TrEMBL record:
It comes from the Eukaryota. Belongs to the EMP24/GP25L family. It is a single-pass type I membrane protein. The chain crosses the membrane at residues 200-222. SUPFAM superfamilies: Supernatant protein factor (SPF), C-terminal domain (SSF101576). Residues 48-130 form the GOLD domain. Keywords: Endoplasmic reticulum, Membrane, Signal, Transmembrane, Transmembrane helix. The keyword Manganese does not apply. The keyword Nucleus does not apply. This is GOLD domain-containing protein. Pfam families: EMP24_GP25L.
Length: 234
């Protein structure tokens, strides 16, 4: 009986190794670099900057932006289709989130405009999340080659493993995106606090200087009232 059991295990060992190898390969391919991107850039006064993102038809493209530094904390924001059609326009906003469903495949233009400001430059953070780019095609080619046989030694189905890995990948990707957004919020709040600290310190010093000047003026005036050098005849 022991001999028979060892023969059965030796016969199923290649299948187990193939399944493990397929899981590892699919997991590596599922975590390859995607087309999501995030940038932080400095937008000079009186200038506009545009970025291009490729999107496929029937997919989704989410764009989130925040002005994290600069006087006024606002910019003009636009998204144009590959055909030059204006899809989204916002004026003098500090942040925004927009989801675009591309109707044509091509390069979509994302622009930030600071031409209304003549002196103040702005620091802008934005993130692009693209879905429906056919990112699972390579992973799909790996799994069909590993067909599960009934009565094998594995307790879990390949489909269950794949769904778990896909769910984990999506949650990790979403966590990374949320952390990037939170970092942008933190940077904006820190810059705002530092700017307010400078203003409070400046006006506090100015107020103290005015108070000292007023006090010295009052002392000088009172002393002048009692400093009468004229002689009084009795």
């Amino acid at each position: 009986m022991e001999l028979v059991g060892s023969k059965e295990w030796s016969g199923g060992r290649p299948l187990v190794l193939a399944l493990v190898f397929g899981c590892c390969l699919a997991s590596v391919l599922s975590f390859r670099p995607n087309q999501d991107a995030e940038f932080t850039f400095l937008l000079p006064a009186g200038r506009s900057e545009c970025f291009f993102q490729t999107a496929v038809k029937n997919g989704t493209m989410e764009v989130e932006y925040q002005v994290i530094a600069g006087a006024g904390m606002d910019v003009d924001f636009t998204i144009l289709s590959p055909e030059g059609i204006l899809l989204i326009i916002e004026s003098r906003r500090s942040d925004g989130v927009h989801v675009v469903e591309p109707t044509v495949e091509g390069d979509y233009q994302i622009c930030f405009d600071n031409t209304f400001s003549r002196f103040s430059e702005k620091m802008v953070f934005f993130e692009i999340i693209v879905e429906g780019q056919g990112g699972d095609e390579v992973g799909d080619e790996v799994w069909p080659g590993l067909e599960e046989n009934e009565g094998s030694l594995l307790e879990y189905k390949l489909e269950d493993i794949r769904e778990s890995m896909d769910s984990l990948h999506k949650r990790l990707e979403r966590s990374r995106q949320m952390q990037a957004v939170l970092r942008a919020f933190e940077a904006r709040d820190r810059n705002l606090l530092e700017d307010n600290l400078w203003r409070v310190s400046f006006w506090s010093c100015a107020s103290m200087l005015v108070m000292v000047c007023v006090a010295l003026t009052q002392v000088y005036t009172v002393r002048k009232l009692f400093d009468d050098k004229r002689r009084v005849r009795t």
